[in-house]
């Protein structure tokens, strides 16, 4: 039996895409992007004009530590979390690197046009907050990568990111600016959108014969350890993620506390569920690597609200349970019944907790009162100023819920469209029997691999 | 020969403990824990009232970067440092994760009752400093875990942590508040207490036949590399650890400098000793992974004092020597004569350097003068205010020494008590021949492990 | 055939060097080093005197987050980047640790004498900026280590570092103080100097029979993954590196933005070139691990200038191309024609991008105008004050170029001198057939290594 081998040669397409897109970035940045007043040498004049007493009040010092933590989450966190597959670690961490490096540039432009355009000169003015938002935007695309890990070519990933960032910028503008919903940690804007975007793409790209490479669709001891590096850096720095663009002062402070607590709670219920569903109570690394993070996703929207410490613990408690149950029951169901192959289980880590996070945000916004927040505090937290000066918490709750729907629609709709684009037979994606295999796109030095080769040899024979 | 197999089924006990304790946390947080004035939406009013000119003076901005570094030390530092065993890496990093996630919640409550209780409404008010202190508290329990690594069940670890955090909060209150001793980096409060707590537990749980699993009680090349990730993140972020809760301004600044220098010095003497005691001067990874950190432990108490840069170097110099000698001579002695099996050698890394740190702190406090510190500086550094306004440095030195004794007593006494509790035959701990083996508590994918299995097969045959 | 075995016994030389040098550090620190006014307990008086309104204006809070990121780059970044060799990971991360721990102490003294000497009492006064500069200084020596990785003994590395730090401090003084060139991210001072220093040493130490250990001069799958940890932490934290000692406020802010963008651009062109030059467009991990960082090197000097966001992208664009071409064409040429064996390819990652960075810095300085910078901004950015009050941008450009030449001269001249010192047959360096092998200087536990031993056994037989 000789299977049809797809053409995975990307010798021209990958360099072409990289060069052309990077050149376009240079041209667009040349036309549009400049430093904002806090990163420009004119800051010294601006400081005097605005009567700012010290350089330390530059936004840079409010946000730089959080920015660096978010940056680590994007490149090491997401990158290493996906290295769990036994021989797709290069693809996990390497393509994550490529996609994110492109995505942040495109995001600076797309988000800049919507949020940071200076109408006096038509330029996008960037500062530290733009860098954080670009990282956030890319996070959505990296979540989507989790669903198709091992089954697509790097060119497809770049296309996914180009469209993903574009869709993200639009839905973000609608949710945050038009609907004036709040979403500091991005439960809706990042996680719900990103997860359904990825799942929809994976649904369109369904591979009925994926089990031909099932011998590679699993972990080994060392690859599970590398994945734990990703898990822990995501887990530890999540308080920075949810607080990075929150309000100065109490806003950032509270977002960090809420996230810290929600994540702690999630770990215990994840361990409990994992143990409960295995024979003799053993733990499964898949759950520890993923479900322990669900609380951070779900507390994203409400992180800067007065959710209360115990409120955060409750959110984490349920998300650990739901996410672990997702891995045990829902992932097989998705694959068999709905034909969605979700390599990393992003439905359990991002989709469900993201939706929960949107709902928690809507409810806690609707329930906000002047007694709890204080008059000024309520206005500050929800930005009930300018055109939104007359909005009240219950109405805000409704707009939060509307925001969640927008994220879902953009994720599902955009994902189906992009999935169809990626179905074109020009992208160099691997054949079913070559999925999850670094050898297709990477020079792999062998030595230790002869073991795996033996293993593969026998598995393939068994199938044939 | 058929050995007795212990019942390591934790299918009911582990989920039960996790769920019940997490629910208790939620209830207790609901009753007791609220945001403090810097993380509450009323901050805007508080700022005006206290005449604080900028949001940047929120304690969050003084401590958040250090907090995140400490957080990394707890979860990646301690977690990966313990992955050196060839097949207990899941247990090292996974149970470290579980224990710390529970411990920080319980610590927020225990430390909150002692230190952050608002008597006007009976609530614990938390902010960033509480999160750091909770991480510190858990560090004591994770040090103790090092002594029993591979020999206990996760349920036992949770019990150890429950009691450990409780004991920690009490001894900390006595040392810092009653005795008014200073201990910014926790040489006494964290390291001395944690190490003797763990060693005492290990003494009570002594296993005479532990050599039945000695084939697993060692490292392989890759596991040593993972452990170096832990070592380096602990080493690099230790300046943040010792400065995290030091006084704003010069206090944090000085604590970071002292720790940076002490650790640098330790590396050189550790390498020297390691090389001196091996044939042909080869280095031993065990020493590099552990003893290089001893200087950070020993400079903990005095980190915010005017120890002088050269004083820090001297402390690091001797700790590198003593700690490495501990691994070479003292650990075998502890195991053979005192019946204390100390998997990670915490006696060399935490116990001895911790005691040295307490002594250095007492001496340098007693030697403090107005000339060196300045009048205001002396008052600020040692908090000679309120009821302690009349205390002088020599007296302070005595109280520092008393603090060290309290830490020792709580560590040893508490450890013996908790050890006896853990000796009950209900906790699902592994049999002697199953120690240091991830397969007991984790689903382990095999592939590479057939090598280890062969090895184990032949070792066991040899013993039988 | 019996090869001559070099004497690699370092049982006396390594401990002796470590002890004697560390003792010297203690004595010199005792005589010379004290806390500066911001880390001394007299800060409280100083604050009043200088009318500083809040502790947050202590330089510590401006620079500590960047300092910790730089610290991670030095110890985890450089250390893990060099672990790519299949069995020299202990040497990579361990000797990096040793060398850096010694180097930062010696750098505090050397740089202190040149930059932080208080002439009123003859003491070096240190604070957070000195710690960052010491880390920077060591970075130069660690770059040099990359050229000789696997071919020298730890004693040789310490000697290299002793001389390297000394040379660094002198060239830095000439470039920054005498020529008054700007070099925030050290393209010239750190990268150009460090790379040519290492390459020159490697040239003097040329080993014609190095192919006797070529079976070990390559990577395996796991070692490539460990190296990616180093790559990513360098890549992510490079914005902190280039901004760490930039001017407060807009200076640090702009340096971070420029570096972030240059690095993103580099990733895309590196991937493009790597794919373009491999059969079927596969990617090579060597390029991804190294060339993706070239943009950070090349934007170092100009990072705090008004380079513009698109200017940074352009720099990164060309550096990704040049650096990858370097690995493909230039490294073999260097080895075969110029007799320079460059284990890590530092010529491609540091030397060429460093020189480019110096040139970019000179051009962008010469092109600075009052229109773009503002009058005050120009003065602030280039420190046109005091004795340099009359300097204009075009002249500054010339001095920048002169600075680049100084860095080159010190690197090449110093490297040749130190190379000759290291050629003395007293340092315990390995024989040609033992290069790149951890077993020479480390206790290595075997188990997994029997595979490698087989491999080596057959390779050596084949050569014989």
Automatic annotation (TrEMBL), chains A, B, C:
Superkingdom per UniProt: Eukaryota
Primary location recorded for the protein, binned into one broad class: membrane
A GO cellular component annotation in the UniProt record: plasma membrane
A GO MF label: ammonium channel activity
Pfam families the record matches: Ammonium_transp
Record bears the keyword Ion transport: no
Topology of the protein relative to the lipid bilayer: Multi-pass membrane protein
Ammonium transporter AmtB-like domain ranges (all copies): 60-426
InterPro entries according to UniProt: Ammonium/urea_transptr, NH4_transpt_AmtB-like_dom, RhesusRHD
UniProt KW keywords: Ammonia transport, Cell membrane, Glycoprotein, Membrane, Transmembrane, Transmembrane helix, Transport
Keyword match Manganese: no
Location of the protein in the cell: Cell membrane
One BP annotation, GO: ammonium homeostasis
TM regions (residue ranges): 12-33, 88-109, 155-176, 188-206, 226-245, 257-277, 310-330, 401-420
Segment forming the signal sequence: none
Family: Belongs to the ammonium transporter (TC 2.A.49) family. Rh subfamily.
Function in brief: Functions as an ammonia transporter. May play a role in the elimination of ammonia in the gill.
Protein's name in the database: Ammonium transporter Rh type C
């Amino acid at each position: 039996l000789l299977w049809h081998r797809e053409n995975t040669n990307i010798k021209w397409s990958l360099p072409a895409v990289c060069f052309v897109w990077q050149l376009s970035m240079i041209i667009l940045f040349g036309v549009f992007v400049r430093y904002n007043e806090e990163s420009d040498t004119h800051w010294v004049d601006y400081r005097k004009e605005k009567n700012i007493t010290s350089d330390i009040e530059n936004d840079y010092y409010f946000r730089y530590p959080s920015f660096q933590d978010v940056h680590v989450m994007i490149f090491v966190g997401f990158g290493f979390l996906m290295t769990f597959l036994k021989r797709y670690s290069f693809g996990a961490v390497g393509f994550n690197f490529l996609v994110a490096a492109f995505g942040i540039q495109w995001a600076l432009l797309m988000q800049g046009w919507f949020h940071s355009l200076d109408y006096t000169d038509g330029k996008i003015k960037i500062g530290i907050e733009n860098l954080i938002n670009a990282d956030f935007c890319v996070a959505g695309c990296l979540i989507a990568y989790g669903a198709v890990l091992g089954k697509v070519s790097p060119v497809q990933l770049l296309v996914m990111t180009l469209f993903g960032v574009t869709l993200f910028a639009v839905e973000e503008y609608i949710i945050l600016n038009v609907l004036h919903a709040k979403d500091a940690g991005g439960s809706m804007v990042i996680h719900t959108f990103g997860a359904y975007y990825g799942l929809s793409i994976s649904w369109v790209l369904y591979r009925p014969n994926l089990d031909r490479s099932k011998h590679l669709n699993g972990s080994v001891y060392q690859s599970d350890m590398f994945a734990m590096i990703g898990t822990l850096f995501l887990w530890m720095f999540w308080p920075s993620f949810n607080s990075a663009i929150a309000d100065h002062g109490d806003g950032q402070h509270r977002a960090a506390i809420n996230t810290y607590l929600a994540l702690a709670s999630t770990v215990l219920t994840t361990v409990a569920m994992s143990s409960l569903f295995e024979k003799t109570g053993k733990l499964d690394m898949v759950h520890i690597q993923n479900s322990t993070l669900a609380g951070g996703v779900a507390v994203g929207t409400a992180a800067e609200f007065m959710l209360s410490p115990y409120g955060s613990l409750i959110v984490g408690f349920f998300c650990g349970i739901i996410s672990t149950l997702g891995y045990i029951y829902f992932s097989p169901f998705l694959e068999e019944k709905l034909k969605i192959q979700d390599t990393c289980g992003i439905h359990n880590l991002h989709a469900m907790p993201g939706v929960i996070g949107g709902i928690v945000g809507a409810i806690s916004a609707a329930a906000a009162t002047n007694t709890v927040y204080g008059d000024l505090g309520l206005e500050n937290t929800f930005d009930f100023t300018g055109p939104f000066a007359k909005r009240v918490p219950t109405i805000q709750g409704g707009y939060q819920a509307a925001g969640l729907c927008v994220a879902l629609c953009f994720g599902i709709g955009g994902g189906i469209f992009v999935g169809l684009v990626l179905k074109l037979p020009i992208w160099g994606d691997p054949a079913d029997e070559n999925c999850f295999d670094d050898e297709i796109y990477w020079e792999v030095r062998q030595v230790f691999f002869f073991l795996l080769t033996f293993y593969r040899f026998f598995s393939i024979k068994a199938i044939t």
